[in-house]
């Protein structure tokens, strides 16, 4: 450590330094420091090879391998810099500024005023690193060059004059009036536009103006312009309040629509020009630790708007409002549901409106009484404008006792009592007869008793650990009035591994599986370092010989059910494979064959999914039709930055599997292919997608899209 002689009370208290060698010229009042010089003022530091300090003027001149850190943590690298004795102002030559919050500015020359603001001449900015992992220089994948750049240290903003965007060293786009933040915070301004070429609307360009209204709310207005149709305006408003958050998104345009069922693939009939749009809103308010209100709303002007403009491919738009109270032992929900169908052949009048839907559950325990009790009260009203209406209310009490025997068996005893009251009208408007029930008031009582026994066996195997768990369940329910009750929520029934040991294999509440049945099977788990295998398989047997309420083909029609199972294999983080199946109990034909497989990691992977339902169910049951489908997706890197990706969905259903469709056994629905470039500061991709199905004015054809994301850059 070295310091000059003389009166140091006014200067040395502010600036301290160290160096390999220090020389003081008392006549000129100058300090000369050489070799590994470090100057410190508060949190600011300057490191240099040589420093000259003029004590008369307060000027500091640093030269050679300079590293200057200002009060905000920004780092300036240069070979020569002039500063005041408080490190406030100065001139800099051939500098590089590394901003603390990301991004780099390079310039031929620059000045820094007393507030820390910098003005740079012949400058360039990039969010990319300028060195690789080995410390070698590299060219940034993108940069913005400008005749002049101004950095506002207080507002953390960078403004440009005469800016041009360069990508991979090639100038591609002038950016007049460019400005952006240096600390990644959102601010008002224009965002980078999107480009796309589609079959339905032609070429399109979208530009978004973002308004940062306050720290807790913002608005984004997007104008999308097409060569094949009129422009569309999109608005998205987001708001964070003291109680919660919500957002609302709206789309509006005017365009022509091809009538549903039309075989035309050309331009839409001009006589059907109309205003079209879509509203999507959601949010949640938390009034207290227990009470909350959750809502979402989705409405489209017509059935093809979302597909034509590539907003969503959902075939049903659900809106709901749900008031909930949740604590450790109880749950209350008061909700309403509205659904808009966008399926081509579904009449909206047959789609139910559920209001209100009330559900209350409470868990209880009594001193001296083993086990756990749960009480439930449920009420539901369903209204249709052109279909059957129904109302339901029931109360349920359930007792569960779980115990471990001295031999290691896990035994669960269950007792359930339930009473129902139903009312329905316009039952003849439901096309499937067994779903209708009887009109007017209907009541029923339900009593169920069950015992479930698991007996795990643990041991070593194949260098790892295995657990074999046989399982037996007996469920007894006296005969229940099922056909007299409307079936609104128990239609899509199928024997699967997920409901094999359920008390009631029907989803929902409207249908109850009665009689006495035995369900048996086993779980097997094998685990060793890097490998995990889990298997479940089982079957059930009914003692009753009465006709079942389950349709043929569900796997539950006869006394003995089909065999169902699931196998999951995980090999480290590289391979995950899940297979679900249902085997016909007589012929061992595969009635359900489904697998999902993933091989690879986030950079290189193959994903495949296959589903074949071969249940031979009558076409009257619209929720249970057979189908066959293949889904595949893949991605692989070409270099460290470039990768290619693709995906496809193929409908393999033929007329034998589903006579209601015109599939020929191989129908490509949609595929996507693309190439992407990704590094530390740039995401760039080009995607080609082709749709093979016409739905009104959502015509089949090719779509091309360019996506561009530059780290820490917006346009204003």
UniProtKB/TrEMBL annotation:
Function (record text): Involved in the assembly of lipopolysaccharide (LPS) at the surface of the outer membrane.
Keywords, sorted A to Z: Cell outer membrane, Membrane, Signal
Species in which this protein is naturally found: Novosphingobium subterraneum
Name of protein: LPS-assembly protein LptD
Quaternary structure annotation from Swiss-Prot or TrEMBL: Component of the lipopolysaccharide transport and assembly complex.
UniProt-annotated location(s): Cell outer membrane
Cellular component terms (Gene Ontology): cell outer membrane; transporter complex
BP GO terms, sorted: Gram-negative-bacterium-type cell outer membrane assembly; lipopolysaccharide transport
Alphabetical list of Pfam families matching this protein: LptD
Family: Belongs to the LptD family.
LptD C-terminal domain span: 276-640
PANTHER family, per database record: LPS-ASSEMBLY PROTEIN (PTHR30189), LPS-ASSEMBLY PROTEIN LPTD (PTHR30189:SF1)
InterPro entries (alphabetical): LipoPS_assembly_LptD (IPR020889), LptD (IPR050218), LptD_C (IPR007543)
């Amino acid at each position: 450590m070295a310091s000059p002689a003389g009166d140091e009370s006014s200067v040395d208290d502010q600036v301290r330094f160290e160096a390999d060698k220090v020389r003081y010229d008392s006549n000129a009042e100058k300090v000369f420091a050489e070799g590994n010089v470090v100057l410190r003022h508060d949190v600011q530091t300057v490191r240099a090879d040589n420093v000259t300090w003029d004590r008369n003027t307060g000027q500091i001149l640093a030269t050679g391998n300079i590293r200057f850190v200002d009060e905000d943590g920004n780092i300036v690298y240069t070979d020569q810099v002039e500063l005041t004795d408080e490190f406030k102002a100065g001139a800099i030559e051939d500098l590089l500024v590394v901003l603390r919050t990301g991004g780099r500015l390079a310039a031929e020359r620059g000045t820094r005023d007393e507030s820390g603001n910098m003005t740079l001449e012949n400058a360039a900015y990039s969010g990319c690193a300028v060195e690789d992992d080995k410390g070698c220089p590299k060219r940034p994948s993108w940069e913005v060059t400008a005749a002049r750049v101004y950095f506002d240290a207080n507002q953390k903003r960078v403004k440009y004059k005469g800016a041009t965007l360069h990508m991979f060293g090639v100038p591609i786009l002038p950016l007049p009036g460019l400005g952006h933040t240096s600390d990644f915070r959102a601010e008002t301004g224009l965002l980078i536009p999107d480009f796309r070429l589609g079959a339905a609307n032609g070429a399109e360009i979208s530009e978004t103006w973002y308004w940062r209204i306050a720290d807790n709310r913002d608005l984004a207005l997007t104008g999308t312009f097409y060569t094949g149709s009129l422009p569309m305006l999109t608005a998205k408003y987001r708001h964070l309040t003291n109680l919660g958050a919500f957002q609302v998104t709206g789309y509006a345009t005017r365009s022509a629509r091809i009538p549903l069922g039309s075989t035309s693939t050309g331009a839409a009939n001009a006589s059907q020009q109309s205003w079209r749009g879509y509203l999507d809103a959601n949010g949640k308010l938390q009034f207290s630790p227990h009470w909350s209100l959750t809502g979402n709303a989705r409405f489209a002007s017509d059935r093809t708007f979302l597909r034509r403009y590539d907003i969503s491919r959902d075939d049903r738009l659900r809106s709901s409002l749900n008031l909930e109270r949740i604590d450790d032992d109880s749950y209350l929900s008061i909700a309403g549901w509205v659904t808009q169908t966008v399926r081509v052949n579904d009449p909206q009048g047959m789609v139910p409106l559920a209001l209100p839907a009330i559900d209350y559950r409470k868990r209880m325990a009594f001193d001296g009484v083993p086990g756990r009790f749960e009480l439930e009260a449920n009420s539901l009203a369903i209204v249709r404008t052109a279909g059957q209406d129904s109302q339901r209310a029931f109360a349920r009490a359930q007792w569960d006792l779980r115990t471990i025997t001295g031999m290691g068996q896990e035994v669960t005893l269950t007792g359930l009592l339930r009473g129902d009251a139903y009312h329905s009208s316009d039952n003849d408007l439901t096309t499937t007869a067994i779903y209708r029930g009887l009109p007017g008031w209907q009541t029923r009582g339900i009593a169920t008793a069950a015992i479930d026994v698991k007996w795990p066996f643990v041991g070593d195997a194949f260098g790892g650990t295995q657990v074999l768990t046989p399982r037996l369940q007996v469920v007894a329910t006296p005969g229940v009035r099922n056909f007299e009750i409307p079936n609104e929520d128990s239609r899509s029934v199928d024997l699967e591994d997920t409901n094999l040991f359920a008390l009631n294999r029907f989803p929902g509440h409207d249908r109850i599986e009665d009689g006495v049945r035995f369900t048996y099977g086993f779980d097997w788990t094998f685990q060793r370092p890097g490998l995990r295998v889990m298997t479940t398989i089982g079957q059930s047997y009914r003692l009753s010989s009465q006709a079942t309420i389950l349709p043929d083909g569900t796997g539950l029609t006869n006394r003995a059910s089909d065999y169902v199972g699931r196998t999951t294999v995980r090999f480290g983080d590289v391979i995950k494979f899940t297979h679900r199946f249902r085997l016909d109990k007589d012929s061992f034909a595969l009635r359900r064959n489904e697998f999902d497989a993933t091989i690879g990691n986030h950079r290189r992977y193959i994903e495949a999914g296959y589903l074949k339902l071969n249940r031979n169910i009558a076409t009257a049951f619209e929720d249970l039709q057979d189908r066959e489908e293949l889904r595949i997706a893949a991605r692989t890197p070409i270099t460290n930055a470039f990768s290619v990706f693709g995906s496809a969905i193929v409908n393999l259903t033929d007329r034998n599997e589903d006579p209601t469709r015109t599939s020929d056994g191989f129908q490509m629905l949609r595929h996507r292919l693309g190439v992407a470039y990704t590094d530390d500061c740039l995401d760039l991709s080009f995607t080609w997608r082709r749709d093979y199905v016409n739905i009104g004015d959502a015509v089949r054809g090719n779509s091309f899209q360019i996506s561009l994301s530059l780290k820490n850059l917006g346009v204003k």
